[in-house]
Specification:
The complex is a heterodimer of chains A (189) and B (615). By secondary structure, chain A is of the alpha+beta class. Chain A has 2 domains: 15-42 and 96-187; 46-90, no CATH class. Helix content of chain A is 32%, strand content 39%. In chain A, the strands form 2 sheets. In chain A, strands 1, 2, 3, 4, 5, 6 and 7 form a 7-stranded antiparallel beta sheet that branches. Chain A has a 3-stranded antiparallel beta sheet with strand order 8-9-10, covered by helices on one side. Chain B has 16 helices and 19 strands. Chain B has helices at 42-56, 77-86, 172-177, 195-205, 234-261, 269-277, 279-294, 303-331, 335-362, 372-409, 415-429, 431-459, 477-527, 530-538, 571-578, 591-600, and strands at residues 3-8, 17-24, 29-37, 61-67, 91-97, 104-111, 117-119, 121-124, 151-154, 162-163, 165-170, 179-180, 222-223, 461-464, 469-472, 543-551, 560-568, 585-587, 607-609. The chains are: A alpha+beta (189), B alpha/beta (615). Chain A binds chain B through residues 1-7, 28-34, 36, 99, 101-104, 107, 109, 119-121, 123, 125-126, 152, 189, and chain B through 1-2, 4, 28, 128-135, 148-150, 164, 166, 168, 192, 194-196, 546-549, 551, 554, 556, 559-560, 562, 567. Chain B: It holds the Pfam family Gpi1. Chain B: InterPro entries: PigQ/GPI1 (IPR007720). Chain B: This is Phosphatidylinositol glycan anchor biosynthesis, class Q. Chain B: Keywords: Membrane, Transmembrane, Transmembrane helix.
Chain lengths: 189, 615
């Protein structure tokens, strides 16, 4: 950490996501009009990985014991490896970042467990506002932060909605913090 | 609004001089394209910029001055300020950088409408809440890390406007070569166009500006991405020289070929019908069109045209090389002769299997009891048909090898031709199955229609053709009697015809599936954009979906520095955007409609061959 860094990582409140798992929020202020928010989900748990692997291989051994076919074992190994690779490269999100630069735009990026990053940049001219919306999901009401995009033909209408932090799904207290910061910057520029 | 300066990475270590670039209207941004070094004559600089403006079509101006004093050089503050009088601008940027420090600094001088210079004083503030700690670049580019901080420029007491500056570093060569997607067709309105396409467009169109390198003896000395020496490749230049005569020759050959194809002899009705059914002929006409596109002597100007030409050329090349490989493999050790030798026995085998199937149907198939007389009639009819077919095949058998040998040579034209040929050979060899299917389907269809109509009569109703609905009708007694008789006959004959229909439809579907797979693979080879895929994999910056920003590590007291990287297009978007349009074979009916047709006995043509191209 550099001196005088505007870097909030240890908070008094602990944040959780809508399922109750612990997440962490990190805010960095690079400049008066440029801020970065990172929401990190829980990492891949080694216990769960081992449990799944053992379950799959045990069942494969049992089937092999019954059928005496070695293809079962090799297919179990291949399935486990491929499944793990697919999960950490395409499914498991490690952290999601929101970088807001006043009068330039907003950059949303997700970083997966294998290190792959997928980024999207939205120009300020297309952004109407950043708001917290409610949604009804099964039997619960959840809140999510989203960016409203302008319709090119009608400046007053909203053409589409880009939801943020879709994998980490933080709760309202976390969203409010991010929302307030973003609104400060949007108001300035 | 914050002032955004797009600064090329190649000019980070450039000597002091003038900044040349473009102001983007309405966005309060400036794109720096090059730095003109001292010593220069202002008149020559103005002339050069005017010339470049005409050549490139970009609104180039002198944006300001750049100062990076070397050791021993004095600061040129007053000299730089005086320069702004020589090049009158609305806003004059004074960028400076000190050796050993990584941050840039920026003064902005504005002129009020009278032309008088208002100097805005710069104040470096190091707030407690000052901007620090960029997320360091993860060494992706290994770029130098620069300081960043807020640069507050305060105006006079009355104004109080806080101008802020962001430096956005970009790699000039990559931005110049890249193409932003989605591609706008037509000329966009410069007022409403968003910032990034304008930046990309400016750099791309300023190509003439980058032709002058440091070895040229010109009036101005510049630094830009090509100033170390112009890039070129001997192979590309040689190919450019060779391409024109080759293109002209190929175009001439193609015009000959198309005129031959459209001549009167070959355009008789039966020939046209046959050639539209044979997929080889269709593929041939298709490839001719492709070649005409590629070999047209005019240069492709728009990005789309260029990509299409390149894709067609590369896929044609790959197709032909795969075809040649296949031909060389098949003709070695006379494999083609062996293949021809197995064709007639294969046809024999198929015929024998069909005969056995018919014998089975004529007996008690699957334990069902058929109507004996109808069964025998249909069975004998089909058996005779097979006998005729086998005789024709045996008649042709001495010529098969020779025909196959010569026709197989046409696979040199490409793998797609080999596959279409295979599909055509299958169609010809299984023609009797197609005939059986048509007979069975027609018979079944007639039975079903007759049954439904007589069933209505049985209930005392009639189909009203005018109103397209079922109405009640009073029949005479003899009508009812005959109708009921016929209904009973047809009803008891239905299982036999239905069984024959079922068996032959299944056989036909098997053949259709096989042909469908071949057509799909031909279509895939035709339409897959190999060149665009190659670009995406090896030069991913050329196809850009957007940009991504990275905050560069900052020094306190300098403005915010960002690094702009190119976000490459997703692989699925590449395929979708650059697919060559083809005559796609898509199923004409949905599954439900297909089942309905099968049930009613209507003839099905599951693969719709579009004559017009679809995208």
């Amino acid at each position: 950490m550099q001196n005088g860094d505007q870097h909030y990582s240890m908070e008094d409140e602990t944040y959780t996501d809508i399922d109750g798992k612990a997440i962490s929020l990190e805010c960095q202020s690079h400049s008066g009009f440029c801020r970065e928010f990172t929401v990190s989900s829980a990492k891949v748990s080694i216990g769960r990985v081992m449990a799944y692997t053992c379950a799959v291989w045990l069942s494969a051994y049992i089937i092999f014991f019954v059928t005496e076919n070695t293809a079962v074992l090799s297919s179990a190994i291949i399935i486990t490896l491929v499944g793990m690779m697919v999960r950490i490269h395409f499914v498991k999100v490690d952290h999601e970042t929101l970088l807001i630069i006043g009068s330039l735009g907003v950059q949303v990026s997700s970083s997966y467990a294998s290190g792959r990053e997928s980024t999207d940049f939205i120009e300020m001219g297309k952004i109407k506002d950043i708001v917290i919306n409610e949604a009804i999901h099964m039997q619960t009401v959840i809140y999510y932060l989203c960016i409203l995009l302008k319709d090119p033909s009608d400046p007053e209408a909203v053409s589409s909605v880009v939801p943020l932090f879709q994998s980490s799904k933080p709760r309202l207290n976390c969203l409010v913090k991010v929302y307030k910061s973003c609104q400060e910057i949007l108001a300035k520029c | 609004m914050v002032l955004k300066i797009f600064f090329p990475q190649c000019c980070n270590k450039a000597d002091s001089g003038l900044l040349v670039g473009r102001w983007i209207p309405g966005q309060n941004s400036a794109v720096v394209l090059a730095v003109i070094h001292y010593p220069f004559i202002p008149g020559q600089v103005k002339q050069y910029i005017h010339q470049m403006r005409g050549q490139s079509g970009v609104d180039l101006t002198v944006l300001g001055s750049w100062s990076m004093p070397k050791e021993g050089q004095e600061g040129m503050e007053s000299f730089l300020r005086d320069l702004s009088t020589i090049f009158p601008q609305g806003q004059w940027l004074q960028l400076s950088r000190e050796m050993g420090k990584i941050g840039f600094r920026c003064h902005v001088l504005t002129r009020d409408p009278n032309g008088k210079l208002i100097q805005q004083e710069k104040e470096l503030k190091e707030d407690g809440g000052g901007e620090k700690g960029g997320k360091g670049g993860e060494g992706k580019k290994g770029g130098t890390k620069r300081g960043g901080g807020e640069n507050k420029v305060e105006g006079e007491e009355g104004g109080g406007e806080k101008d802020k500056v962001i430096f956005i570093h970009y790699e000039q060569r990559k931005v110049m070569l890249s193409q932003l997607h989605p591609i706008e067709n037509g000329v966009p309105d410069p007022q409403t166009e968003s910032q990034l396409p304008q930046v990309f467009g400016t750099v791309c169109q300023s190509e003439p500006l980058f032709f002058l390198d440091k070895y040229d003896d010109g009036p101005v000395k510049m630094t830009h991405w090509q100033s170390e020496g112009r890039e070129g490749s001997i192979i590309v230049e040689l190919m450019k020289q060779a391409s024109t005569p080759v293109c002209l020759l190929t175009t001439w050959i193609l015009t000959l070929w198309t005129s031959l194809c459209s001549s009167r002899i070959l355009n008789v009705r039966p020939m046209r019908f046959i050639s539209s059914k044979l997929s080889t002929c269709v593929q041939l006409s298709y490839r001719t069109e492709h070649l005409q596109t590629v070999c047209s002597p005019t240069r492709a100007t728009a990005h789309n045209h260029f990509m299409r030409k390149a894709n067609i050329f590369v896929s044609f090349f790959v197709d032909v090389s795969l075809g040649l490989l296949l031909v060389s493999w098949m003709y070695r050790e006379n494999r083609i002769g062996k293949l021809a030798d197995t064709l007639v026995p294969a046809a024999d085998y198929v015929a024998k299997e069909l005969e056995e199937l018919l014998q089975w149907l004529m007996g008690a198939p699957a334990g069902l009891k058929m109507n004996r007389a109808l069964d025998q009639v249909l069975g004998r009819f089909f058996l005779y048909h097979i006998h005729l077919w086998i005789s024709y095949i045996h008649l042709m058998s001495p010529f098969v090898e020779m025909i196959l040998w010569y026709v197989g040579l046409s696979a040199c034209l490409g793998l797609t031709f080999a596959l279409s040929l295979l599909s055509d050979i299958t169609a010809l060899l299984t023609f009797h199955i197609y005939c059986f299917y048509v007979y069975g389907a027609r018979l079944y269809c007639m039975t079903v229609y007759g049954l439904s109509s007589l069933w209505r009569l049985f209930r005392g109703k009639k189909w009203n053709v005018l109103r397209q609905r079922v109405d009640s009708c009073s029949y005479d007694l003899d009508q009812l009697f005959i109708g009921t008789l016929l209904f009973t006959i047809l009803l008891f004959l239905l299982p036999t015809t239905a069984l024959y229909y079922l068996v032959f439809t299944l056989l036909r579907l098997v053949v259709v599936m096989f042909q469908g797979v071949l057509h799909l693979s031909v279509d895939f080879i035709n339409s897959f954009p190999l060149f665009a895929m190659g670009l995406r994999l090896f030069r991913s910056y050329r196809l850009a979906e957007g940009v991504k920003f990275r905050v560069l590590c900052e020094e306190p007291g300098t403005p915010l520095h960002l690094m702009m990287d190119i976000n490459p297009l997703k692989v699925s978007s590449v395929v979708q955007t650059y697919r060559t349009p083809t005559y796609s074979c898509y199923p004409k009916d949905s599954w439900l409609a297909l089942c309905k047709k099968l049930f009613l006995g209507e003839l099905i043509y599951p693969w719709k061959h579009k004559t017009t191209k679809i995208d």
